[in-house]
Amino acid sequence: MLAATQIPDWTLANWAAGEHSAGVAVASSPARLARAVRAAARKADVVIVYLHWGSDYTTCPNALQRSTARALAQAGADVVVGAHAHRVQGAGWMGRTYVGYGLGNFVWWRRNSEADATSGVLTLTVRPSGQVNQANWTPMLVSASGIPKLQSGKRGRRMLDSWNEARGCTGLAAKPPSG
């Protein structure tokens, strides 16, 4: 499991990891993170990368997200997921790599609209080879208290449809490659 941020915010400014200090891993360039993925893939059965990335309040991945996902998939990541945009972004397969560009907010104190409050739990089933063969998203809505609540019925189906429709601007496949 690798994690990093591409967002030049106060967290990165104050707590970036250094050669001799612990902190937040910086992934402003996909190449360094791709090297770490290649090294992890030589040792691990499954390589998962979690990123703090994307542009605030957007539903489609930006160019840096796309190029990073491609670099990490080529380097051997099995799963690349992340969040930051405060919106659910599309998810699906990039070849054999499962990519979830934006998981939305989960526990969040600011709720200006249903889009801010849309959330969910992503459950992935992974083969022994490391390839994700099934992905399920359970829709949730962040309540006024900031805690997510399970959604079912019409609202839950509508939210699940929106999750699936968000894939439209990603270039990702709805199903894993066969074989």
Listing every helix as H and every strand as E from the N terminus to the C terminus, the arrangement reads EHHEHEEEHEEEH
Percent of residues in helices comes to 25-40%
Number of strands: 8
Based on CA atoms alone, the radius of gyration comes out at 16 Å
Major sheet size, sense and barrel closure? 5 strands, mixed
**Pairing-aware structural class of the strands and helices?**
alpha/beta
Strand order of the largest sheet: 1-2-3-5-4
Overall average residue pLDDT: 91
Cα end-to-end separation: 25 Å
State the shape: globular
Quaternary assembly: single chain
Number of helices: 5
Number of domains: 1
What are the segments in which pLDDT stays under 50 over at least 5 consecutive residues? none
- Beta fraction: 25-35%
Q: Notable features of this structure?
A:
179 residues, alpha/beta, five-stranded mixed beta sheet, three-stranded antiparallel beta sheet, 28% helix, 25% strand
Please characterize this protein's 3D structure.
The protein is of the alpha/beta class and about 180 residues long. A hairpin with a 5-residue loop joins strand 6 and strand 7. Helix 2 packs parallel to helix 3. The two termini are about 25 Å apart. It is about 30% helix and about 25% strand. The strands form two sheets. It has a five-stranded mixed β-sheet, with helices on one face. It has a three-stranded antiparallel β-sheet with strand order 6-7-8. The chain has one domain. It has five helices and eight strands; from the N terminus they run E-H-H-E-H-E-E-E-H-E-E-E-H. The longest helix has 14 residues.
